[in-house]
Write a structure and sequence with these properties.
Oligomer: single chain
Bound molecules: ligand G3I
Helix content: 25-40%
Number of strands: 18
Distance between the termini: 57 Å
Number of helices: 14
Strand order of the largest sheet: 1-2-3-4-5-6-8-9
Radius of gyration: 23 Å
Amino acid sequence: MSTALFRGSGGRRARSWAWTSLVTATVGALAAAGLVATAGTASAQSTLADAAESQGRYFGTAVASGRLGESDYVATLDREFNSVTAENSMKWESLQPSQGYFDFSAADRIVDHARGQGMAVRGHTLVWHSQLPGWVESLGTNDLRSAMNNHITEVMQHYQGDVDTWDVVNEAFQDGGSGARRDSVFQRRLGDGWIEEAFRTARSVDPNATLCYNDYNTDAWNSAKTQAVYDMVADFVSRGVPIDCVGFQAHFNSGNPVPNNYHETLQNFADLGVDVQITELDIAGSGESQAEQYGGVTQACLAVSRCTGITVWGVTDKYSWRSEDTPLLFDGDYNAKPAYHAVLETLGGSGGGGGGGGGDDTADCTVTYSETDRWGDRFNGQVTVRAGDSAIDSWSTTVTVHPPQKISATWNGDPSWDSSGDVMTMRSHGGLAAGGTTTFGFTVMANGNWTTPTLGSCTAS
Ligand code: G3I
């Protein structure tokens, strides 16, 4: 057995999810209006955690245990978030790689860190067809049933008092139009009752834990998968099967955009008498368009009193499971992106971002990028700089191009370059009034690489 330490009960994190703001705009209306309505007063919480807490909610992130030695990662995690989900370390293959052998060491590092910072921990995930060790796949019906219930029991007991919410079952439904259960080893061997059994076991192990069913592509209300999950939850609730919450993973991209009726989906599930949580949020994109979508998802959660919190699926783009899509709130240098500010402002906060690289400055301006022209060999980029709530005397930001790209021309600013020639720092010619905007532009010779340049944070004085 693992020698990993079992921490005694750290005491369950007190939660008082109060409904404090009624926001009725749909995501579609919000996007159409352009970001962003500010919820609540301008008392200006300057972190995601504080702003979310002021709305009676948590704001969490997925954490990779191997990154906890990186100071900027930890500084950003500790400053901005008050809930943590292990990105991989609590999955079955990590915790019980061979039958009866439990290794809690990596997950314990995450839980110890989070609890030491006073953060809540979401447990992800007890039963899932993926990241499942081979020995489980080869069990017969009775052995599989025992193994499933034993895994739930051992893991929940280990983290009792520290993990307040569990994804008991993850991704049990198929994609597409069938609305059918996924053809997993659990479904094949145990039949339809396995999900119910997992929830009943979980409740019996830790009666205080919030028990969630978690899935993806359940965002659009009319999709077959959403309907199938809804029917299962409605059935569980009506028959007293212990389920407390439904997790919406919310991995969005251009092929799977944030639906207009997202708020309706969350509300319909909540109306069944369960909490809803956004559990793995990431949205492919950049700049203002990504920011609008993030603001819309945040708004949708605020509009549903039983939407108790949001977790983004990672701290920084550079460690995202799909980093090429830059889907998170902080860029690879830990600079807060426009999406961050959209979320913070939608939660009623302002300022924030902590500055890149571990929080050494506070931005009171923001920058967003758009491509304005493209030719066969080059494109023009434009950056909009916007002052925050106060007037600023000057601003600066960076634009990093991706070799072999080269910037061949700039306008409306004072550029300088680092020694590689890839990082351009652009400084203002003057100041901006509170809330005022200006733009600068540049031409990038693509040299075969059409990747969008990376924007740093905005620094103002
Ligand atoms: O740690 C090993 C490393 O030693 C090895 O060299 C390397 C080479 O393949 O693999 C590393 O493990 C990878 C692990 O992430 C840690 O980086 C696995 O291959 C890789 O499969 C695993 O991907 C994870 C994925 O789940 C697996 O399905 C992602 O990090 C994780 O973000 C993702 O999370 C899931 C949620 O649990 C459920 N919802 C969907 C979401 C995104 O797929």
